[in-house]
Amino acid sequence: MQSSPLKLLLIDDTVMILQQLKSLLSGSANLYATESATSAEEGLEVLNGFQPDIMVLDVNMPGMGGIEMLRKMNELPTQNRPVVIMLTNHTFSGFRDECMMLGADYFLDKSRDFLRIPAIVEEINRQKESAASLTEWES
Fold first, then answer.
1. Spatial separation of the C-alpha atoms in residues 88 and 107, rounded to whole Å
2. Which pLDDT score, from 0 to 100, does residue 128 have?
């Protein structure tokens, strides 16, 4: 069974980072539907309509930051919360702890872990396909 493509929402205030993420992920054998936003406020607007499987979220942005967006996401009624990958240049353990407590699944350093994102997305895709196969088998 071929499952639907993963939907990714990329949120970062630096357009170059968004372009690099799209470039990194475009090399995958799987096809992804991708939306992007340059602020957390814009990301919240896109979130509900797009309903992504995965969200890559910058911790520090002007206005509402990624941590505050996580808080707001916890207040929203949602059936399918995306896998949240926090991305930052500020790897202070307090940020990491707070993000994880608020429901982030990954906390990555932009300078050290950026290239791990495609592998993480591939693993999430494999898990989604396995779950879809299991659901089909049980039907």
1. 8
2. 82
